Amino acid sequence: GESVGLHLPTLSVQEGDNSIINCAYSNSASDYFIWYKQESGKGPQFIIDIRSNMDKRQGQRVTVLLNKTVKHLSLQIAATQPGDSAVYFCAENTGDYKLSFGAGTTVTVRA
Amino acid sequence: DAGITQSPRHKVTETGTPVTLRCHQTENHRYMYWYRQDPGHGLRLIHYSYGVKDTDKGEVSDGYSVSRSKTEDFLLTLESATSSQTSVYFCATAGTGGFEAFFGQGTRLTVV
User: Is B38 in the A-facing interface, judged by CB distances under 8 Å?
Assistant: First the structure.
């Protein structure tokens, strides 16, 4: 996916506040989306996923919203903690078990 | 990391030399991928495999080849390394139960 419009490459958040990370995807035929978290020096780790037949999905402290009309995806993190500091990527399934990734958003949590 | 081991973890090589990166998985996942990660570009797919000896190109495949002779191993080869191939390389795997990909720890390759 590509990140345009509302996407911000960096996000600074006060500890305890909610974070919202945005992503615009490119392929209207994509049917599956994932948010990954990547900490420094590590590989990306799965956070939450959503299929195109859903608008919202909740996990532990995280919520993903999908707006297919405008091809927009967002990740909300509740009560952001220092351990949430990382780079967050959205990824879309472009078919045949291949994922296409956005450029990522670096989240920094302020104490 | 879903039993994914990349080797080596770091490598410095000279321009024009061949380089092979190895990915080994213990999850018996059908799908395996090689991505490269560069600042400002996120992760870009180089090649992927959908079974033993079944591979296909990704969006940035030029200068790279792959081989998969066993389910557990996926090799990425740079036939003649160039400075533009300096990057962090990630291997990932996915099972047939879903599209979620699990990533290894990465290999930092520097071509001088």
Answer: no
Query: If you measure CA to CA, which chain A residue comes closest to B37?
Result: A103
Strand spans (E) along chain B: 4-7, 10-13, 19-25, 31-38, 42-51, 54-57, 64-70, 73-78, 87-94, 102-103, 107-111
Q: Flag if A99 and B101 touch (Cβ within 8 Å).
A: yes
C-alpha pair distances (Å), A77 with each of A15, A58, A83, B28, B78: 11, 10, 12, 33, 40
- Give me the residue from A43, A100, A103 closest to B40, CB to CB: A103
Is residue B34 within 8 A of residue B49, CB to CB? The reply is no
B16-39 pLDDT, tens per residue? 999 999 999 999 999 999 999 998
